[in-house]
Amino acid sequence: MLEPDKMMAAGDAVREGATKAAENSAALSMKVIDHAEENTRQAFAALRAAAKAGGLTELMQVQSDYVRDQGSRSMNQVREIGEMIASFGREAMSGLGGKKDG
Q: Is residue 7 part of a domain?
């Protein structure tokens, strides 16, 4: 059977882990919202540019630029989210091995 001090420490560790997980989840959600907002802003900018296009050639250039930029933006956003998730995982793993009594 676990000693009361060790049971308390285990309970504290679980609470800390749950709090950190909630903070990480909120940070990840905010980043996804930021990305969606930026993507929407860029889409409307492209729509405005397309509406002002002076002809088919210019319209096709606007579309081409938007598709290229959105592809690049998407890759950067995926990379950023992946790095955040990896960082959260490293933090969680270091927290598991870093606390020893004795």
A: no
